[in-house]
């Protein structure tokens, strides 16, 4: 589940162990002498202007922070870690009370769990009430219950999963969602087209449906046209993208669209395809694919004729081949 993967992620960050947290190594840094404004802590000065001596076994916040940032430190995070992970480690040194117990759930604004074998988006995710971005790419999710998604969510990325039905996701979708990523899943038309409307996604700005199995271009366009805030759309990799008038129809049918399949839509292109949406007879739901064989190695050439001696009784050997393509 997502909750189990989240707990494992926290364990990997080591927020409750040296050099983070409130261990004996920095306990005195966060007692009653803590700055009332919640700023970084330093050495405490006495009335005579002399800095108080650091108790044995304790480190200053600056020294602890250096252990996190120095790439040669055994406590440093990998260079490819997210900025949020680094920020959490720093908080665990400077303000450890904010990442202890249930307080940690209020800190997360973004959560990235990629390629961890997650199958279920469980209700434990609701503890992250302030979560705005949820990235669950390259897992094994086949269905999502929208009631388990935080209501503040603005970005939901589900690329490279096994989602084939959007019904559960659309039961109580996050009302403020701005990006929905469903590329490389198992969605198909016309059964899923009805879930891609403003009734479910009134604030959607970006939609990725690439590399699914959508085939009904006209049906999908009629549903997407209700998404008045949609500016970015990705449909490449679907069978409908092979239709000759595919791009022209979308450009003319969705006048507020700015980017289609990662290509900007300019004024010239809009003028070129103007009026195409009113001519459905030009839209043919078929495509032609031409396949040519460039070179084959390792088999006898069927066109090479054997030179037989005059009067030879040796049998003549011929070769023929059949090449099969599966789509």
UniProtKB/TrEMBL annotation:
A single GO cellular-component term on record: cytoplasm
Gene3D superfamilies: Ribonuclease Inhibitor
Domain of life: Eukaryota
Keywords tagged on the record: Leucine-rich repeat, Repeat
SUPFAM superfamilies listed in its UniProt record: L domain-like
Protein name: LRC43 protein
Gene name as annotated: Lrrc43
């Amino acid at each position: 589940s997502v909750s189990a993967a989240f707990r494992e992620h926290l364990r990997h960050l080591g927020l409750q162990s040296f050099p983070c947290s409130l261990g004996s190594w920095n306990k005195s840094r966060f007692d009653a002498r803590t700055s009332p404004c919640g700023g970084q802590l330093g050495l405490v000065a006495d009335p005579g202007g002399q800095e108080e001596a650091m108790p044995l076994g304790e480190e200053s916040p600056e020294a602890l922070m250096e252990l996190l940032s120095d790439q040669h430190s055994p406590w440093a995070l990998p260079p490819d870690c997210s900025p949020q992970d680094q920020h959490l480690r720093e908080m665990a040194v400077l303000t450890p009370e904010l990442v202890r117990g249930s307080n940690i759930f209020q800190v997360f604004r973004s959560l990235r769990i990629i390629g961890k074998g997650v199958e279920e988006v469980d209700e434990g995710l609701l503890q992250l009430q302030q979560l705005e971005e949820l990235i669950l790419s390259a897992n094994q999710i086949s269905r999502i219950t929208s009631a388990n998604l935080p209501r503040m969510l603005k970005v939901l990325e589900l690329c490279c999963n096994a989602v084939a039905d959007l019904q559960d996701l659309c039961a109580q979708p996050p009302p403020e969602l701005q990006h929905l990523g469903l590329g490389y899943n198992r969605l198909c038309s016309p059964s899923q087209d009805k879930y891609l409307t403003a009734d479910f996604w009134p604030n959607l700005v970006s939609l990725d449906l690439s590399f699914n199995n959508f085939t009904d271009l006209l049906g999908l366009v009629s549903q997407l046209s209700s998404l008045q805030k949609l500016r970015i759309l990705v449909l490449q990799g679907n069978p409908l993208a092979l239709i000759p008038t595919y791009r022209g129809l979308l450009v003319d049918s969705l006048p507020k669209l700015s980017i289609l399949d990662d290509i900007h839509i300019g004024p010239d292109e809009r003028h070129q395809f103007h009026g195409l949406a009113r001519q459905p007879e030009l839209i043919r739901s078929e495509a032609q694919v031409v396949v040519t064989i460039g070179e084959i190695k390792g088999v006898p050439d069927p066109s090479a004729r054997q030179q037989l001696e005059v009067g030879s009784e040796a049998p003549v050997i011929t070769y023929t081949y059949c090449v099969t393509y599966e789509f």
